[in-house]
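Backbone-to-sequence.
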């Protein structure tokens, strides 16, 4: 599904990602861990198409499409979703209008029937209920007045409604209490199937109590220095990142 090959990325003449290689097959869940500044969020931003980063070398292929030839909205219509580490406020744009536009644009690009307001409201309320949030959210501006945890749940709501093929979740577990963490993990598990893949970027192993990954990667100083199964995290907890560089 996703192939990242020999990727070099810089910003302001500083190289952030170096010769990074990653393959994510259909239906797989990959965990990426690494210290602050290692390039985790940069990788997600580059896959999303953030133009502030300079691609020096390498390629990113998604479902046989060269992502470097596509802009951000084209990548989203191809089925890529990014849940941001710090979801921003969008004053003046209600959650309903934001979601309506996103859902119907993706449906249109996939030659699916455009949903009317009544169907959209019913669909949205059903997903909001599953996340134990209030229907009032639809009338509020995107993320305005929401706590950090509520913003993360709002990202998961978008994920549920857009049903992407590749879900990249940048620290979706940060700022969540234990009940919200379980809710998010259970939601992600319910979305797992043989056609949908996940890349979960995290600092903590606690989400791994509820989500069984196929692979775990250690990203350090801009490149993946070690890959393995979930037991790799136990080594990380015991010895720290420096142990992997020796």
């Amino acid at each position: 599904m996703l192939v990242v090959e020999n990727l070099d990325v810089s910003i302001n003449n500083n190289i952030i990602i170096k010769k990074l290689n990653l393959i994510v097959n259909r239906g797989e869940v990959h965990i990426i861990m690494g210290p602050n500044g290692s390039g985790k969020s940069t990788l997600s931003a580059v896959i999303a198409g953030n133009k502030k980063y300079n691609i020096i070398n390498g390629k990113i292929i998604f479902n046989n499409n060269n992502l470097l030839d596509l802009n951000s909205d084209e990548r989203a219509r191809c089925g890529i979703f990014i849940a941001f580490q710090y979801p921003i406020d969008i004053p003046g744009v209600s959650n309903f209008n934001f979601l309506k536009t996103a859902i119907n644009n993706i449906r249109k690009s996939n030659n699916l029937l455009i949903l009317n307001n009544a169907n959209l409201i019913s669909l949205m309320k059903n997903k909001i209920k599953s996340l134990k949030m209030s229907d009032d959210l639809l009338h509020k501006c995107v993320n305005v007045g929401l706590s950090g945890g509520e913003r993360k749940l709002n990202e998961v709501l978008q994920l549920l409604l857009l049903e992407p093929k590749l879900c990249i979740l940048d620290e979706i577990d940060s700022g969540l209490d234990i009940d919200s963490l379980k809710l998010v993990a259970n939601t992600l598990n319910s979305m797992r199937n043989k056609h949908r893949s996940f890349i979960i970027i995290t600092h903590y192993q606690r989400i791994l109590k509820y989500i069984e990954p196929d692979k775990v990667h250690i990203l350090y100083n801009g490149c993946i220095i070690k890959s393995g199964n979930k037991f790799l995290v136990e080594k990380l907890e015991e010895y720290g990142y420096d142990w992997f560089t020796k």
